[in-house]
Amino acid sequence: MADRAPAPLSPLTVQSLGSGSSGNALLVEYGATAVLVDCGVGIRELGTVARHYGRALDSLDAVLVTHEHVDHIRSLGRVTDGATPVVASAGTAKMAGIRAERHVLAVPDRPVSVGALTVWTLPVRHDALDPCGFFIETPGGNLTVLTDLGCWRDNLADALRHSDLIVLEANHDLEMLHRGPYPPHLKRRVASDVGH
User: Fold this and answer.
1) How many Å apart are CA 187 and CA 155, to the nearest integer?
2) 112: which strand partners?
3) What is the pLDDT of residues 146-176, one digit of tens each?
4) What is the mean pLDDT of the chain?
């Protein structure tokens, strides 16, 4: 009997459904497993864009939440009306009002399995109660997602080094911030080590 070549691995795919102050959401798929990372986009737009990529919101395996700011959780209650688990830190779950029966605790150094994904929590600096990023491992590649990263932390280096894809929310421009319309207190917040 001739040796068969191994079956090709499914690709890891990542689609941005929104990024920026108006709302953040990423659709991450590997094989039959699909998760949202954040769901800060309005529910109609979120559903429309997800359907464009062939995914219904009620077929998600989980929602991973980085932190409780509205541009990251705007549609969380609508997306998780059914039995969709929400992976979040304890502080984020508390501040976002995530119900205990839906909450899957995200803790550094303790991975969470979601279908074919292994999800690691990455603590970050931001002005939220318990913000994080995520390192997602799959047989088809690894992904790091970092949003609202106030400043660099050395704990992130290992995840980035082992990633095939890195998604950063990178919409910060210091010159635009200083010349823009924000009041001085908001400019200081955004430019701080726990800002953006």
Assistant:
1) 27
2) 119
3) 988 777 778 899 999 999 999 987 666 778 7
4) 87
Name the DSSP class of 155.
G
Mean pLDDT within 23-52: 93
Dihedral of the alpha carbons of 73, 77, 82, 84, in degrees to the nearest 10: 20
| 171 torsion bin: left (phi>0), alpha (psi -120 to 50), beta (else) | alpha
The overall pTM is greater than 0.85: yes
Percent helix / strand / coil, the chain, rounded to 5 = 25, 30, 45
- Quote the tokens at residue 3: 């040796």
Residue whose token pair is 């009002």: 97
* Residue 37: φ, ψ to 5°: -105, 110
**Where does residue 80 rank: exposed (0-12), middle (13-18), buried (19+ CB within 10 A)?**
buried
Residue 171 CA: distances (Å) to CA of 6, 19, 111, 142: 41, 8, 29, 23
